[in-house]
């Protein structure tokens, strides 16, 4: 607890296009805006944030494996939310507490976006607050880690 | 914006027992703990919080109607999440921005708890962070209201 | 038949907001407009209309029980249409002929609004004609009562 | 509005047998009784009624196409209600306001009779009032046309 | 019983091609072979057979209506078996005892061929015996009529 | 065990009409008959029976909360059996042993009556024995409490 | 063909009660009546009929195995129709042509009676003609054997 | 009524192992304990109990047929509850009033254990009270027989 | 191959209204525009095009039967795509290679438009290119015929 | 471990015909070939093999009960795999480690063969290796027993 | 329009094996044949074709992102058609008009191949014409681009 | 046969963590333990084993393509079992005999783990024997290759 917590901020497919892509659904803020937002907030709390984005499911798994020593995860699995048993298994395997976040409200979109393979192995799920979802996810994670320390 | 925002904090059925009920699922914190947590946080932001709990679906609807002038809603519909079209319609009817929150991670429980009638008419959904879910929900709501002011 | 028929006009949840709520779906006419429309029409036929609205499912059941001596019912169960086995059972229990009406065309909206628990225990169902649905429902009911007198 | 409205009264398969067919479900009144009922009612309002019945799905479509200049439609699609995407498309194609009517209460019969392909492209649906359903349908249509004139 | 019974032998779509069409499924015998088979068998029993084939659903309904005075029906609805509520309703409407027959074993083919809209309003169903299915159907019908005379 | 056990006898919607309502399904005995039957039986065993009936889901929940000190529950949730997650959660929350009873055999009625949200959080379920179901339920409950004392 | 064909007539569970059991569904004729009916008909054709009835699924399978030298089978699997993969496999295994018959019209009864595990491995299925179904089944079988001799 | 009633107590597959098998689900009491419990209770009422257990579905059917003269049945079909149409048909065929009982609460176990083929042809169903379920079932049966005598 | 190929261009229900009907979905080009487009393209290849449109399912079947000598078919079954087993069977019966085409992208519309009864008996399916779909279909057909000549 | 392990080799319905039955699916090897194969392999390990085959579900259950002292089970439930809750319960009841084996690859056949009621109460499942599946099953079982000794 | 259009030709998993793989389904033509076919056709129109194949879902997404400046896409997603929400989202994100093509007729194969996650975000879908599907897809795309230029 | 057979041993996502990951489900043995186990066994038979693990679906496909000359495959697709049509297609495409293996008993876990996209294109499936599943899979494969040599 004297040491800084290491938190992974993971982004799934197409999120690298954030801010330029379908702005009516995903807004105009970019991944860099999100990064800056989190870093600013992180100054006051003892966390190291490690940012990662990939469009390749297996790269995300590899990243998760490489960082098994992390204290927590904030992950926006994007499209993989609804299709990836492998990422679900990876999170369960490394047993690092994770929070699933979404920029849009996935419960108000196509039917197939309402079910998540990932959420059942996470602490919780946050969706619908734009890039602010990451900030809320990080706070929720910290609060969880603190009360389970 | 010079005036304080009026925010409704609504709790559905059985949440009055919080802290005493199935503590392995819902934790040991009570509704009063939650209230205190929110009020403490609310001091630094210009909001008035109005707390309401009922086990009667229609009372929640009546409360929503009576408070149509509110600026935002944080609602934990509890069991009504999965059965109440009427509360869904009430939120849609009064058109006050709402956030759905859950203490437990509803995506990791019985199948019937994974689908929400309410979430599609909300800004977003937050689940799994204990009473901290309300705090995150309030923050998400404020942030939404600010960026849509 | 020399006596006036007693007809119940029952409105389910959120219909008290009629005319102010989602006007693209439900129109600009209020419950009072509906009331006036029915009363005007009722002058020429020997009926007493009793109006009731509640957002509480059980209050509607209580009202139905209290008025078991009625000759007929026009009911817009609103959201309860799709969720209330209890109101279905209440209508079946008191055995007063009932007509189910809807302001909007429920067959052209969300999938879950297409199925009614109430309609199978009614004479028939009318949906899609705005507040005029009540008038048609009342006429249909009167015509049914006359031909079954 | 100075001119009479042209209204199509369309009957689907087997309705030519009305009054002689399964009287416990469909009653003893014939299509001619219905015709007379509507014509009598139509005297006081400025409408021309055109009656059509066919057991052939495509003939109904042809009739709809030929009468694209009509002001409104009252259609009892009978069995085609549950199977004809083609009549649905025809009504959507000619964009004449239509009302779907049924003699029996289709919501209280076999499961497959509860879903209508036609209703979603209509103003509304009326079922369960015997041949009176047509009269209610015509009224509902006129009222719709008047308020959208 | 002193008079000859009038029996309708009805064939649905594509059966006019029998014997030339997909011979591995439907065999090499034609509708004329079937006709001859039935007529030969019918000599010893007092029945008049009336043969009808159409590819138009509504024509079959019209034929059924025109021949409401028949004593019985042997019908191979072919593809309409699985899609025609209208023919089902026509048979139910005229209340002439009917037997559903199929050349191929519909229970051993595509999933959608296993369910019949027509069979529930018939005495019974026979499938899988080539054109002999008609002969069996006729016998079954006669036997039914005799025991219900 | 020296003290009398407190047992709640709870009745859901429309059961106040018992004995007057659809007698072919529910019989001619009233709630008072049931009360008398139970009280007579209860004389020989050390139990205090508290009777409650409401048509309002939330009132039943409130009653359950108020009586959390009870030793056991016999509940006929009636229509709420199939729709109320909230009552299920209430019983699970207060952790008082409960038995679900039904007057009619719910497994021999409409499809939707075969599934219970309540039964999985109860000791067991009894259905089909008229008002005698309550007596059997009470006995089953006592026997359960005795063997778990 | 100079030799008599050996045909198995197999009856599944509860058919031993035929004629005494639910007469509105199954009629008043007994298995012996059926036997006599078939034997009378069989005199004119060169077949030996072997009758078997059992309420034990495995006994029917054993009987099928023991009689693998048979030329054909008429089987009324009764309740096993809808549940026995084992009898289906037995018929497929011994590769003796079989006809499935039913006394009642299984397509007009409970939903679960509409699907047969057995029919897909048979020549065809006959249902609805009382004990006459067996006679029709035998004829259909003979006709099949003759044309495939 | 001067004569003793003959009641069958039937146990399905694996119940012979009761008391030794999965004690967390089925308890430590054996079939003999159950027998003794029922016999003790039966002394005060004029019934003869006949006990039967088999792991063979068809033997249960044979037993039911042999004992068609019985006045009532208490049956725990165990695994056959969810798979045996044949036992359902046997009970319906002999028309002896039957009660279905279960030791464990089948509504709180695997999904496939929630549906019973047998219950719809019984007076009612009792589940969850250990071997006491038989006693309750017997009482419920006697009470049914008395009120229908 | 020295002879011109005979190709049928078949249009299902409501396509006669093309260009005037729901232009946002189906565009402004008419069937005549399509005809002209195909004929222009056909000049350079040795094909005779025969155009047919009908709103009557059976007429399309009759037309297919009459033209069994054709070398290929381009068919837009329109609404019949999703409901006509009979046209499916007709194409399978005459064994003329067929291509299914659609003006709109049926995979991006209502759920029920995504499944085709016809496509499984065709060479392939083309949808979404306006009247150009026919041209692509014709090319695909020609290419298929050439490589299978 | 000084003593020989007792292993049951159980075969379900129709497997007595192995080698003569549908050889394209099940191969030409018989149960005796399998027996010999296992016995040969068993010489080198300290196991006693007890072979059992029955076409009667209940006989398999009886055999399982009689041999509750066994150390392990290799079972090919054949058709009962997909229909027998009773065998599932028997294996769970006697708590002897079991391995489910199949000759054919059940995952590559009819849809209904993909789900097993038995596998969830077994150590594992092996399918697709002909009679070699038994050998693999035995090895897997031994290896399991050794590592759990 | 004076400049050449840039068109991406994308191939999903296993298509690199085209021509050598399951030739009865996919034919004998290779990806190079396809390339040559398209290039030959492309000479007469002003397009630059860029060919890409990958077995890695994320590589296809990366390729799509890198080439966001393209004018159009012809994509054969192969197996990813039925599983990749991520590619769907990528195409929607970059908003370049796309056509989905398939070598085989996916509507005539396994059930799971009939539904496409990709098609709803494309102009249209073409399947069943071997490598000619690409050529048709390219034509369809060009025609679309021309009419929307 | 004089040459050594080349066998691929392929491991899907997260299996690199074997032995350290969720030990209650997957055990304490690592991939290296498995490797050693197989190599030891392989000494006595003429096989070359090639080990491969990847968390990237497409890498597994590439590996399969590169090794199309292999004689056989033992594959544990892990999470890809339930989601990867692409690996299924790759195995079907290269037509190298494959065996699917699983460490845990997938038939005893979450519902979604019971269905495999891969198994239908394999010789067979083995699940539940820990790392011994690989050994059994290899044996089964060798036995298959030998009998099909």
Taken from the alpha-carbon principal axes, the silhouette of chain A is: globular
**Domain tally of chain A:** 1
Assign the CATH superfamily of chain A.
Answer: Dehydroquinase, class II
* Termini separation of chain A: 8 Å
Quantity of strands of chain A, as a count: 5
In terms of quaternary structure, the protein is homododecamer
Q: What letter string, H or E per element, gives the SSE order of chain A?
A: EHHEHEHEEH
Total helical segments of chain A: 5
Q: Runs of chain A with pLDDT <50, length 5+? A: none
Nearest-integer average pLDDT of chain A: 94
The spatial strand order of the largest sheet of chain A comes to: 2-1-3-4-5
Give Rg of chain A in angstroms.
Answer: 14 Å
Strand-helix topology:
12 copies of one chain form a homododecamer.
Chain A: E1 5-11, H1 23-26, H2 31-42, E2 47-53, H3 57-66, E3 72-76, H4 85-94, E4 98-102, E5 124-127, H5 132-147
Parallel strand pairs in A: 1-2, 1-3, 3-4, 4-5
Helix pairs in contact in A: 2-5, 3-4
């Amino acid at each position: 607890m004297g040491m800084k917590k290491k938190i992974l901020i993971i982004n799934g497919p197409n999120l690298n296009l954030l801010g330029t892509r379908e702005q009516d659904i995903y807004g105009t803020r970019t991944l860099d805006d999100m990064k800056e937002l989190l870093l600013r907030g992180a100054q006051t709390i003892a966390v190291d944030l490690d940012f990662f984005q990939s469009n390749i499911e297996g790269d995300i798994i590899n990243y998760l494996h490489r960082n098994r020593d992390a204290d927590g995860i904030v992950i926006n699995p994007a499209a993989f939310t609804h299709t990836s048993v492998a990422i679900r298994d990876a999170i369960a395997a490394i047993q690092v507490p994770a929070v699933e976040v979404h920029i849009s409200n996935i419960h108000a979109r196509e039917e197939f976006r309402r079910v998540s393979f990932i959420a059942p192995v996470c602490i919780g799920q946050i969706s619908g607050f734009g890039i602010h979802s990451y900030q809320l996810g990080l706070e929720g994670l910290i609060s969880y880690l603190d009360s389970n320390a």
